Amino acid sequence: MNDLCVDIGYKSINHVGEQLCGDHVDIIEQDDSSVVIVLADGLGSGVKASILSTLTSKIISTMMAEGLPLEECVSTIAATLPVCSVRGVAYSTFTIIHIINNQTAELIQYDNPQVVLIRDEENINYPKTEMNIGGKKIFRSTINLCEGDVFIAMSDGCPHAGIGIGYNFGWKVEDIANFMSTLANSGLTAKTLSTILVDECNKFYGGKPGDDTTACIVRVRKRVPMNLLFGPPSNRDDCDRMMSLFFSKEGKHIICGGTTSSIAAKYLGKPLRASLNFERSDIPPIAELEGVDLVTEGVITVNKVLEYAKNYLEDNESYEQWSFKKDGASLISRLLFEEATDINFYVGRAINPAHQNPDLPINFNIKMNLVGELSDCLKKMGKRIKVSYF
C-alpha cells in the first residue's frame, strides 16, 4: 500500500440558452484506494442530452465499480439507450478513469477528446490499445501512477471553444494540454484546475457557450494529515486528555475558539498572542501560539469556512476570496480544501455561556451542526474525515 491518493474535481457550463447540462460526471468509490470516474457527453444539448449522459455515466460507473468487465458495461449501454433516429449516431460518448489501489489508472475512451496526462509539466503520450465492442471503437490504456500526475478528461465543448471567434478550428487538445501544464504543479486542487480550464473555455466562447463544456481533473498526490480543534470539552477534567490526543497526531494543527486556544496555551506552557489586525470586518482576527500552525476565533470563522466549502462544491466562485486573503476563514479554507487529505476534528461539547444570550444567533446546536455540515462537505471533496467529541 502506497501513500498516494487522488484529488478529483470537475466543472461544467451549459450550452447557451439551456437550463440543463448535456454532460454528466459520476464518481463511485470502491474503497479507500479505488474509484471509478465517468464523464459522459449526451448527444446534442438540453433535456435529452442530460438524460442520455446521466444514464450512461450512472450505468457504467455502477457496473464498473461492481467489477463487471468493460464489454458487459458497453453492451448494456447499447441495449439500454437509444441511437439517434435522425443522425444514426451514438446516444452518448464517454470517458472512464478507473483508479486501482492508488497505483494504476485504467483509461477507457469512446469518442470524447483524448484524456491528457501531464507529468513533470509535460504532456505525456501514453500507449493506447484499440478495441471493438458492439461495433464501437474504444481505446484502453493502463498507466502506473506517479506523484504529481494530472489527468484531464473533457467533453468536446472544451476543444470546440473559440470556433469562429478566437480560433478557426477551436482550442486544440494539444493547446489545452500546454495551457494546463503550466498550472499542474502549482498546488491548486483538481476542482480549482477544472474551474480555471472551463472558465477559459467560456472566455473563448465569448460567454455564450456553443456546446455543453465539462472538464474533470484527477490529481495524484501524497496523503497529508490535518488536525482541527474546535471548542473546549464538556468536562473540564478532559482538557489534558483532549490536548494530548490533539497534539500527538501527525500533521498541522488548527485551533478555533478563544477559550479553546487559552486551554491549549496553558497545556503547552506558551503565551497566546492575540492580534487586533482585522483582515476583514466580518471575520475576527487570528492569534499566534507556538506549536500551533493556526489559531482563529470559533463559530463565526468556522461558519464562513462552511460557506466557502458549500460554494467550492458548486461553482467555486468564492475561490477568488479565500485563495489569497489572510483572515482566519481563508487560511483554514486553504489548509483544509487544498492541502489536507485526511482531517481529524476534535470537538468540545462545552456550552459557551456567551452563546446563551437569546439576542445572539449562536447556540450549542448551531455549533454542532457546523461541524456536521463541514465534515459532510469535506467528505464530498474526497477527504477522509474523523470526528472525535469530548
Summarize the structure.
The chain is an alpha+beta fold and 390 residues long. The protein is 32% helix and 29% strand. It has two domains: 4-222, PPM-type phosphatase domain (Phosphatase 2c, domain 1, 4-Layer Sandwich), CATH 3.60.40.10; 225-389, no CATH class.
Helical residue percent?
Answer: 25-40%
At the fold tier of CATH, the topology name of the largest domain is: Phosphatase 2c, domain 1
Q: Major sheet, described briefly? A: 6 strands, antiparallel
Q: How far apart are the first and last residues' alpha carbons, in Å?
A: 32 Å
User: Care to count the β-strands?
Assistant: 18
Strand order of the largest sheet: 2-3-4-5-9-8
Strand/helix succession:
EEEHHEEEEEEEHHEEHEHEEEHHHEHE
What's the helix and strand layout?
Blueprint: E1 4-13, E2 23-31, E3 34-42, H1 46-65, H2 70-80, E4 92-100, E5 104-110, E6 116-119, E7 122-124, E8 129-133, E9 136-144, E10 150-154, H3 173-181, H4 190-204, E11 213-222, E12 225-230, H5 239-248, E13 252-256, H6 258-268, E14 272-274, E15 287-289, E16 294-296, H7 299-312, H8 319-322, H9 328-339, E17 342-347, H10 364-380, E18 384-389
Parallel strand pairs: 12-13, 12-17, 13-16, 17-18
Antiparallel strand pairs: 1-11, 2-3, 3-4, 4-5, 5-9, 6-7, 6-10, 8-9, 10-11, 14-15
Helix pairs in contact: 1-2, 7-9, 7-10
How does this structure look, described?
The strands form four sheets. The chain has a six-stranded antiparallel beta sheet. The chain has a five-stranded antiparallel beta sheet with strand order 1-11-10-6-7. The protein has ten helices and 18 strands. The protein has two domains: 4-222, 4-Layer Sandwich (Phosphatase 2c, domain 1); 225-389, no CATH class. Helix content is 32%, strand content 29%. The mean pLDDT is 89. It is α+β, with helices and mostly antiparallel strands. β12, α5 and β13 form a beta-alpha-beta unit.
